[in-house]
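pasting for the record
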Amino acid sequence: MSVIVFGSGADKSLHRNLFSIQPASAQRITPSDVWQVVYQQLPDLPRENKYISRENGKVDENNTLANRLIRYHVYTKGRAPIYRLDWKLTLADYLGANEIMYDTTYPGNDSLRENPINGDKAAIARLNRSQRDALVQVLVNIFNPTSQNTQSPSPNTVPIPSTSTTPQLPQRGGAELLK
């Protein structure tokens, strides 16, 4: 398992043993290539790759929404890429429902002529809930292939609560069992 250092410059570095990405096809994927796998699995996800590079003055087609989303999640926020909740928090950032996103630290701000943050926020806002859930699941599956069968249950398989009105009381010795 390799060790990846997150963060850059004056940012606090987080050491994680999180990237041992091995898709079913048994080929290794580097974190910088994950965005391509996202678009293979979700071809309708907006690319938002119309921005012009500061370096060469041409459209940077590899600087996509998925690429920036992953970089924001992992490098800017330092969130683990293997957990659904962390990805949902990141999407909540884009939707303005969690943490404030800053223009100056957003991926692409330093390499593109126009900061893509507003376009990316709008693209995420145009996704419906099931599209956002699919995006989260694809990202978790890519970064944590062993979690591929841990999707939340479908509405048809959710257990129906008991109609009994008698509340269940804790059993004696329950605290001892927790030790």
